[in-house]
Design goal:
Blueprint (H helix, E strand, L loop, with lengths): L1 E14 L3 E8 L3 E7 L14 E7 L8 E8 L2
Parallel strand pairs: 3-5
Antiparallel strand pairs: 1-2, 1-4, 2-3, 4-5
């Protein structure tokens, strides 16, 4: 199941050494959660309020899934 949308980051939480659990609000999908891997290199991209382009991948509708994020604008 792949979804692509744009949204705003509303919450982040560290998950392990280099990953984050990210909550995003988008107009199309509402509030979605996923894991952003390898974000230790540039955690400034995951600041609350950033508008991001989201590529959300998961195998089943009950799984958390993973995000690939691209920052569109920083407030």
């Amino acid at each position: 199941m792949n979804k692509q949308t744009t949204g705003i980051i509303i919450h982040t939480r560290k998950l392990g050494e280099s990953s984050f659990l990210v909550t995003i609000f988008s107009d199309e999908l509402g509030k979605i959660k996923g894991m952003a891997r390898g974000s230790k290199k540039n955690p400034a991209n995951l600041q609350i309020g950033n508008i991001v382009k989201v590529d959300w991948k998961r195998r089943l509708s009950t799984q958390l899934g993973s995000f690939k994020l691209e920052v569109i604008s920083i407030p």
